[in-house]
Structures
1.
Amino acid sequence: SLEKAVELGAEFVVTHLNHGEGVNNMATARKLADEAMSRFAELSRSFKIPVHVEFLGYHSVFHDPEEFIDILTDYPELSLCLDSGHLHRHGQIHGINPYDSAQKLAPLVGSIHLWNISSHDEYLRRGHVPVHPEHRVEDGYIDIEKILYTILPMNLNATVIFEPSVPKGMTEEYILEGIEWVGGIVANYAASQ
């Protein structure tokens, strides 16, 4: 709850719109999204804690970044949590370039969830695969470095959150290699500014 987040000293909370299953009408989906954003903004003001709304992009009709941006910008209390894995799945599902979507969403980003995935099948088997420098676009993975270099110029202070599942057989060393790799990307970008 937001009350608990404030009690624990959280810097912000992350939430997302539901998938809107059964809502196949854009006007209805947009109305529901606007009502949810309004409620999130009200809660943010009431509890005095920033709320970051995660972009999922899975909804059948309400999945376009411009629609999300249009509603989110009506609520200055809210920021965007850009999730690399969901962004990639969004692109796979809807045939949309995830890097173009990241560029459009970047100005609103307050936080970034990092994980990777090559396909829906891998997602079903392994969940949120930890980011790692071995992941290659030609193997179906999203280019994490490209996503970071898209977001960082718009908001160098965006909070990076690693959000992996830990599949059976995954080692701590593998996860730490990915974390250190991302840390190096962010540090190199910051040093160049």
2.
Amino acid sequence: AALAAAALSLVGTRAQAASVFDLFEDLCLATRAEPAAALAKAEALGWSPAPPRLVRILTKPSEPGEVTTGAAGRAARDLHGTLAVVVARTSWMVPRREIPADTCSIVAGPSVDMAAVAGDVERFAATPGQRGLAFQKNAIGYLWRDLDGRRESLSPEQLAADPFSGDVKMVVVMELRGVVVLQLFVPEKEKI
């Protein structure tokens, strides 16, 4: 309820109607979750600063030892209700390993169908969704690596063993407090 209330309290600009996945692809995937690039794209769409409470809720550590820095967001309203992009640098916890990562999230709701958004992500990722990749029970995760022109699905154990070969991405789709959240995690190779 707190996330939905924070999201619905926005007094921002109206965004043009677009699919939630299209926004995610443009703001998060196309920028590889790089915070400044994602925020600049949102600002170019006329989005305004997101409420600090919304940013805090979305960047709150979900695992012991997880650290999040540089959290910021932009938001607007459209046919879906509220839209927000939230970016940060975080530690991505995988079995026996902590991986520094950029993260970019799209929040949309309340009138967004999680199953439809998950289907869009699965088609894009060309890899099946996995349960248990994120802290939310209803979350579906998509973990893959693009390497030498091919895409391979990864398990968390495979990622922990070799997190930096190829272009690794994880997308999590979940319903959280009345809205749909899509999160992209991209390991920061230069920080290792």
3.
Amino acid sequence: PQADGIDFILRDLLEAWKSSLQGRPEGASMRANIQEAREEAQAMEQTTLALRLLGLEIETAPNPDLKEVLTSVFLQPSHLPDASPGVLALMGRLAGESGKPELQMQAYSYFLETFPDSDFILEALKGLAEARVTAGDLTGARELFREVTERFPMLPHGAEAHLRLGDLHRQLGEPEKGIESYTLILSVKEWR
């Protein structure tokens, strides 16, 4: 499951589908091929591959009803040990969107424990931070956003993390620290 490369290839495939194949006959054909490959992977007990392909099926689902059915199959805690970094990031996001905050936190936490050096780490850190905000754990969220700002100081996501960090400092009664975060955003030309 730890091979990020496959997850990136599937993300590229998803982007290609969204930009040029969505709604076209070729897109439907691609979806059929993905489903067939997933079923074959399941038959061969290649669970990690099957989960990756199921995630791609969910992201390319032609209607909300099919997406909901596939998502309910996908969002199972028993899948965590077989999930790749990209799958865990998707599981966390979909669990949050589906109103399953416990699974959202489990997926992101498992990701951070199991794949701390993954190229998808930014998504997991931000996702878990937002899940903690939703759960009311503002202190835990603040620490995760701080980690994002320290590990990815100049990425565009850094500005977003500094903004969230400033907001959390304010909510936690630390207005001076909040102002520091907001001021930092304004000091970086690319973030204004």
4.
Amino acid sequence: VPFTKTWALTALSGSIGYGQIETSLRDRPAEEYNTFVANLIAARQVNQTTEVELEASRELTDQTSDFDSRFEDFVFDLEQTSAVEVTAIRLGVGKDFGGTARLDLGFFGNRSDYLDTGAEEDVIGADVNYRRPITGQLTTTMAARYEYQTFSQDDSDDELLRVSAGLEFRLNPQLDVISRVGFEQRTSEEVS
């Protein structure tokens, strides 16, 4: 059930519903999962150049794994589907610098519950994006993102850092040429 409500400086939208999914794991019978699902977005115009947005969602989805098993000349294509319940929240702030540049800053967190295995994955982080037009057709972009991830299945945690810079050239309203260079570093540790 979708909904939308708008006031002078604030907008509220989203949807509420019910999700159902059937999963099949190789060594277990198929199972069915039912849950409440929703998405909510609240946006507020702070002033003429700054807006704040809060988004929260809960989804029921699946993760599918395909793998082949070979026995002499025979190949068996096996598929495994597992139910995942994802709960996420994001707070974003956007600042427009009078049409000359835009800065977006976001903070986020989410939890993935793997219903068939009982494993959990948590992620928290922040990202920043900056865009500045150089000419009418050429724009420079810069972005950075940090994530801290924890995994209950093997009691490990990861840190992920991404940084990128690039150029976007608009050939026409339907076609952009994008060039980007970046750096990504992942640090993984098993908690003892």
